[in-house]
Amino acid sequence: MVGQDPVVSRETATHQGVAKSLDDTPIAKAAERATRVLTPGAAGTLPRPPHRRIITVANQKGGVGKTTTTVNLAAGLALHGLRVLVVDLDPQGNASTALGIDHRAADIESVYELLLGEATLSEAAQKCPSQENLYCIPATLDLAGAEIELVSLVARENRLRNALDSAQLDALGIDYVLIDCPPSLGLLTVNAMVAADDVLIPIQCEYYALEGVGQLLRNIELVQAHLNPRLHVSTILLTMYDGRTKLADQVAEEVRRHFGAKVLNTIIPRSVKVSEAPGYGMTIIEYDPGSRGAMSYLDAAREFAERAVAGTGTR
Ligand code: ADP
Ligand code: MG
């Protein structure tokens, strides 16, 4: 090493005297991954599904990663060249926030107007400001009242399905519609299930992970029997996995035993970055593209899209 410029050689010595390449540091690796992910075209493209797919992301348990999964999976698909529309069906509007849409602004057309027939899909869909190929129909606080207002409307369970007009989705070139549900099994979630081809259930790798899933599955069967014969559970995504705990592995194993091939191989790790991103109005893929959280959602998006084309994830 004598006489060698340490910068030019890209070698550094640790205090134990062990040479370590700068390229091997975690920060350098993350930076390299980030550049790779964000270079136009470098992410590669994913196959378009044979038909447009409408997917409901549901689990009546709160805090399991529905919204996080909806926006980051959507961003992952969009980064790979697919056109995605996120429908925010939770009055809290967290998906809209994470996608950088100001859903508190006065006079925006939102999913509330869409459900009540006061706005069309093309009026309510907004292009997300910082990502190509990504659109969002935002939720406003008005939506909190919709659950009650919908009760007296004609075809109350079919409002979203009717509003997701094929011609208007075609005009936007949408390949995937992802619907983010509120944490309940009320009329909004039923609307999402009637509009969808299939359901993606995020399951948190924590205690009581499967609590309530039985009830969710029974509701899906009810909707399938009475309102939407196409509906089925296609995908399970394990979220907030903490490799340091035995419990996380036990939950993951139990979920795989229960749901078999429906469970994506990709597991989303618990990561602070993932939880920080929405605070900046960003998906994890914009906020920290080289992070483990971003890479895992990109992997999940790839797996999800490839299964759709192979037909394994659609039935
Ligand atoms: P839900 O929509 O099911 O209520 P969220 O997606 O809002 O769940 O997630 C609940 C909380 O957990 C949020 O604060 C979110 O930022 C955080 N969170 C979600 N996924 C992760 C993750 N992989 N790592 C760390 N925090 C996460
Ligand atoms: Mg949510």
UniProtKB/TrEMBL annotation:
Top-level taxonomic group: Bacteria
Start and end residues of each AAA domain: 53-232
InterPro entries: AAA_dom, DNA_Partitioning_ATPase, P-loop_NTPase
Gene3D superfamilies (UniProt xref): P-loop containing nucleotide triphosphate hydrolases
Record-linked CDD domains: ParAB_family
Pfam families xref list: AAA_31
Function recorded in the entry: May play a role in septum formation.
PANTHER family in UniProt: P-LOOP CONTAINING NUCLEOSIDE TRIPHOSPHATE HYDROLASE, PARA FAMILY PROTEIN CT_582
Family (UniProt): Belongs to the ParA family.
Protein name: Chromosome partitioning protein ParA
Source organism of the structure: Gordonia amarae NBRC 15530
Gene name linked to the record: parA
